[in-house]
User: What shape does this take?
Amino acid sequence: MPTNQFTMQDPRSQYQMGRTEKDSDQPDPGLDEILKPKADHGEDTYVGSDRLKGRKALITGGDSGIGRAVAIAFAREGADVVFNYLASEEADAKVTLDILKDSGIKAWGIAGDISDESFCNDLVAQSVENLGSIDILVNNAGKQQFVAELDDLSTEQFCQTYATNVFAMFWITKAAVKHMPPGASIINTTSIQCYQPSAGLLDYASTKGAITSFTKSLAKMVIDKGIRVNGVAPGPIWTPLQQSGGQPAKKLPEFGDNVPLGRPGQPAELAPTYVYLASQESSYITAEIMGVTGGQHLP
Ligand code: NAD
Ligand code: MG
Assistant: This one.
């Protein structure tokens, strides 16, 4: 376990995880509260240095997993944060909110279902009311349910995955851009599944393909407002998403072991990439997708 995100060490042995198939039983959406083994969101390690001082950020899916790690890093870099989550994730949201407030910035959690367009508009309106503007938008919430056989993949699931992963990104972004000043940054969470889609993730993987194209097209549309748009493509990351139907339970003990680094990533290992894309340090980067894949690189 690192002492902060800068400590030099062998990345292969940075995290040791004991996993069994028994650990893998959660309903969708999963909760960090019952995730076994626990994930690292940088709560004990991420050290900020004012890289986002005074910025205002809206993050979807900020209660757990990658979104929680990003929220913690943004807060410690000096940003005020609004994050969204589902009402059933209240326990995780409370933990995240407490950690954010400990950073001395202003933070709010807003519960609601982003597969509903009118809620997406409300979320942006409430965020602007709290934050004053939106300098950073992280579209990170996502739905992933593994279905092995084509015949078993329902229209209902296909539509719900698209509504959550793609349509919500359109609705939230469209509403938010009106409140984003020049210098603002939009970061969308896509996936290695965009480039190397697995059988059994037909709906999910194809939403990630859509998100990658959405990101590049949007970047070219909104650069005339001085807004940059990029994506992050995680590889296999240890979060509740995978333990609550995202992967078949029997695959979880080996989840992520096949990448060159030989282990799944932790949410904390994603956060610095989001900080970089949010900050002015990445001023010449737009329409780009950055892989954080443990070596299972993007094409
Ligand atoms: P996670 O379960 O911790 O986060 C996903 C979040 O999405 C949930 O916390 C939930 O709040 C939110 N969400 C789902 N449906 C919603 C809805 N209808 N309304 C509002 N919020 C909703 O898991 P994570 O792995 O941190 O996922 C974050 C992002 O990372 C997702 O876009 C996921 O596709 C992507 N990703 C994850 C992995 C991985 O291996 N974990 C790999 C590649 C990409
Ligand atoms: Mg969650």
Q: What stands out?
A: The chain has one domain: 50-292. The chain has a mean pLDDT of 97. Residues 40 and 223 are 35 Å apart (CA to CA). The two ends are 31 Å apart (CA to CA).
